Amino acid sequence: MNTSEKKTGSCGKSGTSLDRREFMKAGASGALAMMCGASFAGTPGAAGTDLMTQYSDVIIDAMRDIVKDERANILKAADLLSDNANEGRLIHVYGAGGHSAIAAMEIFWRAGGLACVNGMFPVGTNVMTAGPTTAKVEGFAPYIFSFYDVNKGDTLILVNFYGLNITAVDMALEAKKRGVKLITINAQKFAKKVPKSFKWRHSSKLDINDLADIAIDNHVPYPDAILKVKGLEEEITPTATILTCFTINCLMSETIRLMVEKGGKPEIWVSNNIPNCDEHNKPIHDKYRHRVHHLYPVW
Length: 299
Prior knowledge:
By secondary structure, this protein is α/β, with parallel strands linked by helices. It has a domain at 70-261: Glucose-6-phosphate isomerase like protein, domain 1 (Rossmann fold), CATH 3.40.50. It is 40% helix and 10% strand. It has 9 helices and 7 strands; from the N terminus they run ββαααβαβαβαβαβαα. The chain has a 5-stranded parallel sheet with strand order 4-3-5-6-7, sandwiched between helices. It has a two-stranded antiparallel sheet with strand order 1-2. Strand 1 (6-8) and strand 2 form a beta hairpin. The radius of gyration is 22 Å and the shape is globular.
């Protein structure tokens, strides 16, 4: 269909048509509203729908940008990870600081995910165990690497939503010292906006993508929260978790595909909440239990 053609939508209304360029510019929810001949904003009886529409538009557009703009680096990283996994190495992932650990959890012991993922969740580096926090302490990285058996020739996926967290940069520097390949996932434009003089930066003043072998951008906008409410000064509603988890799932999907194409046999977890899950998962669990620190018996 060329740009002069029309795209017709039903949605209970016949004859509604719109120019393809208008349709593409509108975003998912905006295009749906156009096809239905109505606007979501201010719809009677749908209080708050405008914020939901704004939020979904930003998230969906950012996901499209990730697929378009990060495709080459995601595929390059997937090629490296698939080789590592097919060689029998673990894929190490560290979500450095605060909520960034959620992205590491997303691919660790997860339905549809690779079993050979070594999730790294050291105490004090995320909101669940920060009592007190160690995410802002330099010099902790060597102990994390040693505890989780990350060795020369391995690959580390280092996730920090914004890319400037102290423990994240510390881990990136340690990876370079140890000969560990480094894949970073963070918001590169966000990191550039934060002054080098910001007190919670690493003393090196670097961002994790500065040290990466392969740097992937999660396209999180500054300052993360994006919605405005009249009468409230601060922005509300974050974007970082959804966009980063989407990015890392794209990476792992391509990794698994390439493992198969290269002749490997990926071991994949199934949900622990479906029939026959134990029969499938337990042999895999038993194989990796003594290599992956945070695997624990559930039987």
